[in-house]
Write a structure and sequence with these properties.
Rhopdopsin 7-helix transmembrane proteins; 12 helices; about 325 residues; mainly alpha; sensory transduction; membrane; 3 strands; transducer
Length: about 325
């Protein structure tokens, strides 16, 4: 009898040891936030709340203006309205959660929502890269082949290009998210950033992620490099073509594509994917700065650049605001 009890106790003890060694699945993730300093967090809350509000107002106003003004029903402004829509969505994926977490000590996010955030973050980021590339092609056709422009960039082609770039962004995001989700996660459960992203999340996996990191770098790096080459080639051809035009035509063409070129420079110069995926998944202090610029500042700069540098957009906005003021007076 005593032998049986001893054997039973030993079996229970072994089960306890096995359970102790077994990893606990990560169900919630702790976000590091912008800073541990409360004063810095409060200042950041005020600043990014202003950024987010103006991002929404500016980009939504551009979309409404393009829809309202029939003179802006051209391929260029069709893609511009898509860019504004993406900026609103891209900023909304991360900034509201960051603002809420400012007043939270734990800054928890469920793993499922964390994965969802990763998916939409990469969906909108990749789609924006593709969109900027398509807009560069649109400017190339408009400046270098003006007589064939409406034939080449007809509405059917524009819609197909829009569907293609959104599909490409979706496929890219599904691929990265799938690679990340299939890993086993057993802790730690803290990310040193204010949102979930693939490089930080895979560090929580309790397995070797070297191959996954190579696949992620290859996927995102290839997209970034190819789009960058296409953009550089497009604008190089445009600049060469402008040298052969008269001064007035050259000035108008430069004014037309200056806003787009500025946005491309800002986006690629501070692109989160180029910065993060060009190296292994190691955290650097600069990561948060680049993340803030990419998710909160760039979406705000786009409407400012396109409204201040574009005469057609400014005229359409003034016309829209005048019409709205007239209705209020009535």
């Amino acid at each position: 009898m005593g032998h049986c009890l001893q054997k039973t106790s030993m079996m229970r003890y072994r089960k306890y040891l096995r359970r102790k060694r077994e990893p606990t699945l990560v169900t919630y993730v702790r976000l590091g936030g912008l800073s541990v300093n409360q004063k810095v967090q409060i200042a950041g809350f005020a600043m990014f709340l202003i950024f987010y509000v103006f991002t929404l107002i500016g980009n939504i106003l551009i979309v409404i203006t393009v829809i309202y003004d029939h003179r802006l029903h051209t391929p260029m402004y069709f893609f511009l309205s898509n860019l504004s829509f993406i900026d609103v969505c891209h900023s909304t994926v991360t900034v509201p959660k960051m603002l809420i977490d400012t007043w939270s000590e734990e800054k928890l996010i469920s793993f499922d929502i964390c994965v969802t955030q990763m998916f939409f973050l990469h969906l909108f980021a990749c789609t924006e890269i593709f969109l900027l590339t398509v807009m560069a092609y649109d400017r190339y056709v408009a400046i270098c082949k003006p007589l064939q422009y409406m034939t080449v960039m007809n509405w059917k082609v524009c819609v197909l290009l829009a569907v293609a770039l959104w599909t490409g962004g979706t496929i890219h995001s599904i691929a990265l998210t799938s690679l990340t989700v299939k890993l086993p996660y057993c802790g730690p459960d803290e990310i040193d950033n204010f949102f979930c992203d693939v490089p930080q999340v895979i560090k929580l996996a309790c397995t070797d992620t070297h191959i996954i990191e190579i696949l992620i770098i290859s996927n995102s790096g290839l997209i970034s490099v190819v789009c960058f080459v296409v953009l550089v080639v497009s604008y190089a051809v445009i600049l060469v073509s402008l040298r052969q035009q008269i001064s007035e035509g050259r000035r108008k063409a430069l004014s037309t594509c200056a806003a787009h070129l500025t946005v491309v420079t800002l986006f690629l110069g501070h692109s989160f994917c180029i910065f993060v995926y060009s190296r292994p998944s190691t955290s650097l202090p600069e990561d948060k700065i680049v993340s803030v610029f990419f998710t909160a500042v760039t979406p705000l700069l786009n409407p400012i650049i396109y409204t201040l540098r574009n005469e057609d957009m400014k005229n359409a906005l003034n016309k829209l605001m005048g019409r709205m003021e007239g209705k209020e007076k009535q």
